[in-house]
Structure formats: C-alpha cells, structure tokens
Design a protein that fits this description.
Layout: H1 13-35, E1 41-47, H2 53-63, E2 69-73, H3 79-82, H4 88-91, E3 100-104, H5 109-116, H6 122-141, E4 145-152, H7 155-165, H8 172-175, H9 186-200, E5 207-211, H10 215-235, H11 273-296, E6 301-307, H12 313-321, E7 329-333, H13 339-342, H14 348-351, E8 360-364, H15 373-376, H16 382-401, E9 405-412, H17 415-427, H18 437-443, H19 446-460, E10 467-471, H20 475-499
Parallel strand pairs: 1-3, 1-4, 2-3, 4-5, 6-8, 6-9, 7-8, 9-10
Helix pairs in contact: 1-10, 2-10, 5-6, 5-9, 11-20, 12-20
C-alpha cells in the first residue's frame, strides 16, 4: 500500500515559487464560495512521525482565510472528555456549515495507537473502524466534505528526519515520551496503518496517500487536492449516495390491520389520590438515594421525554427533579434549532449536552424530533429522516457502551383528553402560555403522528435503550409510573455494578 509514497517525488524550488501564488489565490476564492453553501469541510491529517504534518497544517492556515479554519490536536484527553463517550470530543470540533476543521489524527489516532500497543486485537480494531465508517458516512450524507491525508516516509528518511527534530527544542516530537513514539517499530506501525486505511478507504471518504519526503511536493499536493475536492463539491452540492428507504411495511386498508402500538396503550388506568401521594413520596425518596449512589459510582443517566402535546411530560419531569439534588441534573428543553444548531448535523446539539460521569441530563423532547415533527411536517427530507433511525441507534449505543443509563418515555393520551387539556389551558390565565396555534394544527395530523411514533418505537426500542409507553390520561398514574420505571432501572443497573465489583464500560474500543 505504501510503495507509492516512496518513489522520490519532488518539486523544485523554482517550480514551487511559480505555482504557489496561483494555488493560494484559487484556494481563497473557492473557500469564499464554500462559505456560501451548506458544506462543512473536515480535513484529517495523519501519518508516520516526522512526515511534517504540523508543517502542512501551518501551510494550509497560511494559504486559507484562518478566520474560518479551526485546528484541533488530540494529544491528551481532558477530564471533561474522559467523563463522556469518546466521540463527544470529536462532535465538539466539527465545523459549522461553510467552515473548515483540521484535525490532527482525528478519530483515527486512538485506534491506531491501541492496536500498535496491543491494547486491542484485530477484531476489536475492526469493530471500531466499522463505527468510524458509519460516523463518516453519517457526516457526508449530511453534507460534510471529509478529506483524509496520510503522510508517509521511507524508514531511512524518517530516521534522518527524527534525528534532526530531536535537536529542535520546539519540536512536538521531542516532547513526547519515548514510549509514545511509533517510529521505534516502523514495520509494525505500517502494518497497523495499512489495516486501518484499507478498512476505511471508501468512495465518499477516501484516503489520500501523500509522499512526504519533499516538503514542497507534499504541500502543493495537499493544496491542489483540497482545491479540487472543494471545487467538485461546488459543482455537485451533495455527495451522491443511495437514498435511504423506509422499512415500514405497506398495510392492508382495513382498520383492524392498521392498529399501532399506541392503540394498545391502556389509557383507562388510574391511581387513587391517597395511594398516589404515598407512592410518590416513597419513590422520590428512593430516587434521591439512587441518584447519589449513581454519582458515587460515576454512572450517568440520560432521560428522554417525548409525547403528544399536553401529554404530561412537564408534570412527570417536575416530580422527578423535585426528588433529585439540583447539583446532579440538568434539564434541556428542546425547541426549534437555532442558527448555530442548523449549521451542524442535527445530532450535534444533543452530543454537546451529554452529562459528565455520575450526572443526569433530562431532555424535554429530543433527537426524536427528526423522525416525528420533522418527518410529519416536512422539515426533513425522506432520506434524512429515514436514515435517522440507524444514526439514533448508534448514538444511544455509544452512550450505553460508555456506561450511560438511557431511559426513554412516550407519554400518551387520547385525542379527547388532549382536547380537554387544551381547552383548560386556554381558560386558565397562568396556563395560556402552554397552548399555541401550532398545538392546534398538530391535532389535525393526529393519525400521521401516530404512525410515525409506531415506526419510531419499532425501530429504536433496543435492549440498551428501550421505549416505555406510559398511559397518561390520568396524570397521577403517569407520574408514578415514570418515577417507578426510573427507580427500578437505576436499582437494577447499580446492583449489577455491585455484583461486577465495579463497572467497566464496554464497547468496540475503550479509549
């Protein structure tokens, strides 16, 4: 694989000086055009030690308008990053639409290092590379242009280069501990890198192999490759990909053949007031105790509350938060995305709110808006919401693998009960802010939403993040049921930790 990076390509000083001005001018022009589009650019810079990756990045920042370029290196994990799923740190670096992110190593650095040092086997590495391929596909389908550059040197050239760098006090390579250096086992590193590149070299996100022996050749090749990729994207605004298709079957026309999961929810269930008060008090006390225990064990929780308008989400959330110490949780109300959020992948705004180890985040509405309101109201195209099921399952699986306890609630009421609550809100001054024209419009699409919820539950209720359909016609019953479900899940998870003598996160690759 790396033979083509050892043939001795080079550019003379005179030719470099002649070509550089035109390349810089064209790069700036195309960068300005990219700024006007919905395309974000992610450049991954990887390769062998001593290949001049830092020099390339500095050159790109010199040639491009640096106001719209952000550069990130992933040398060490911060405390914040260690307390969250691995990809949290990468989601935070993704450029908004129109901008460019340059990532040293990116999401490839840790897998390569772990396999190089035998912290994982080939099967575990391949599982992580599958996740990377899915992650990159998700970004490209959303309009991100990903360029992956691998810089390579012959072993003899690398030794000479590193000997020179070892004399430079400003060299990052010199600052690394010897045990962190890959160059000591050149052949082994090549073998690992070849497996990684081969596994993740796709039509949408190919690897560009760059011979780095001659820095003028290296820099011009990267600049021209970036230029052509951005020009190609301007000519074809979205990457060509196979549209997603819905897996929902086409049902017969008879009403009995179109019953949904929501039709099976028993809305007649009620809870007597005196029993409700006693159960609520007991459950809240236990919730308080369990959330503190989860904090001590560094087990985070993510709670998702969805449901029809006026379904009782707010009341259920308040009964929970009144029991939990305010220092342990955050409630995130989700409304229409802001301009900043629209400039990123739709999951970006949820990734950044994931809790630290031991804390709880409560989402009042969530990422499921993509397959509910955005689907029904036409805010997302068919391919966008159809591929979202898989994206959401991967998102929740990564949370679970990191030890986050994910609980999802759909609070359901009948259409008649919703109408009664709407009328009550309209008649009560301090509740009038809860009712909007949009709420009334959504009632007209009751059946469409019901079908969307049915498919959502079928395709995203998983072993690690199951859906709980809560009957909500009786508010007291719904609130107690939600709280009991939370308590029982926390109790089971923490008891499991005790049996295991300490929780160890699982997953394709733990970094």
């Amino acid at each position: 694989m790396f033979e083509a990076t050892k043939v001795g390509r080079k550019v003379t000083k005179e030719d470099y000086k002649a070509e550089e001005p035109d390349l810089r001018t064209e790069l700036l022009r195309v960068q300005r055009e990219i700024r006007k589009t919905n395309t974000s650019v992610v450049i991954i810079v990887a390769g062998v030690e001593g290949a001049g990756k830092g020099g390339v990045v500095n050159r790109l920042n010199e040639w491009l308008d640096p106001r719209n370029v952000q550069t990130f290196a992933f040398w060490d994990q911060t405390d914040e990053e260690q307390a969250r799923p691995r990809y949290w740190r990468f989601w935070r670096t993704l450029a908004p639409k129109g901008d460019i992110s340059i990532l040293f190593g990116g999401w490839y650095l840790a897998p390569i290092e772990h396999r190089f040092r035998d912290r994982c086997d080939d099967a575990q590495l391949d599982a992580e590379l599958n996740r990377i391929a899915d992650f990159e596909r998700m970004l490209t389908e959303d309009g991100t242009l990903i360029l992956k550059f691998w810089f390579h040197l012959p072993e003899t050239v690398q030794k000479q280069r590193l000997k020179s760098l070892s004399r430079d006090d400003k060299s990052r390579w010199k600052m690394l501990p010897k045990k962190a250096r890959f160059s000591q086992q050149y052949r082994h590193f090549e073998k690992v890198a070849e497996r990684v590149i081969r596994h993740t070299d796709t039509g949408a996100t190919p690897w560009y192999m760059i011979e780095a022996t001659d820095k003028r050749y290296r820099d011009l090749t990267v600049g021209r490759t970036l230029l052509e990729a951005m020009k190609s994207r301007l000519e074809t605004p979205q990457p060509l990909c196979i549209p997603a298709t819905s897996h929902a079957p086409t049902l017969p026309n008879q009403a009995s053949a179109q019953i949904t999961l929501l039709d099976q929810v028993d809305l007649s269930k009620t809870k007597k007031r005196d029993l409700y008060k006693s159960e609520l008090k007991k459950l809240q006390a236990e919730a308080n105790e369990l959330t503190w225990k989860a904090y001590q064990k560094k087990r985070s929780c993510v709670l998702v509350f969805e449901g029809v308008d006026a379904g009782g989400k707010g009341g259920a959330i308040r009964r929970l938060t009144s029991a939990v110490d305010a220092r342990l949780y955050r409630t995130i109300p989700i409304a229409a995305p802001t301009d900043e959020e629209k400039a990123h992948h739709y999951l970006w705004r949820f990734w950044r709110h994931l809790p630290r180890a031991g804390r709880m985040t409560i989402f009042d509405r969530s990422w499921y808006g993509r397959v509910l309101v955005e689907r029904v109201e036409g805010f997302a195209s068919d391919p966008e919401w159809q591929r979202a099921y898989s994206e959401i399952n991967q998102f929740e699986q990564q949370m679970s693998e990191n030890g986050i306890i994910v609980m999802k609630f759909w609070l359901h009421i009948s259409a008649d009960e919703q109408l009664a609550r709407f009328e009550a809100r309209k008649a009560t001054p301090y509740k009038q802010h809860k009712i909007t024209d949009e709420d009334w419009r959504n009632r007209e699409k009751w059946e469409e939403y019901k079908l969307a919820v049915n498919e959502m539950v079928i395709r995203t209720s998983t072993e690690f993040a199951p859906w709980h359909l809560i009957p909500g016609n009786d508010k007291k019953y719904a609130r107690v049921t939600v709280l009991r479900t939370i308590v029982e899940r926390l109790r089971a998870e923490l008891k499991s930790d005790d049996k295991a003598s300490g929780y160890i996160p699982c997953g394709p690759l733990k970094v």
